[in-house]
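# step 3/5: fold
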Amino acid sequence: VQLQASGGGLVQTGGSLRLSCVASGDFSGGMFSKYTVGWFRQTPGKEREFVAAFRWTGTTHYSNSVKGRFTISRDNTKNTVILRMNSLKPEDTAVYYCAADSRIILSSIAEPGRYDYWGQGTLVTVSS
């Protein structure tokens, strides 16, 4: 499975960005819909941080730091997961990564080590 993340850029505080994660390759069971897809972010010197996830069951999950500002959605017909980010803050500045896994359980969705597949990252910079 290959993941391609895109959509990062420079935005002012309070602005919005839309990140995309497009999956391709041989999916387990032949279906992208069987995968949980997560978004993580990382800044230099820090560990990768959970942002949001869209489980294969249809449920969505967010970190407390982005809840109410970010929305994750998916279109299984296009093998795509979108992270819409509103009311951006300077502390949202990071490289954002999407990740996918077909076997991850609910209690592990915020753990980056549980995901088998990763995209290359896209840089989001929020200026103050």
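# step 4/5: annotate
The chain has a mean pLDDT of 97.
# step 5/5: archive (pending)
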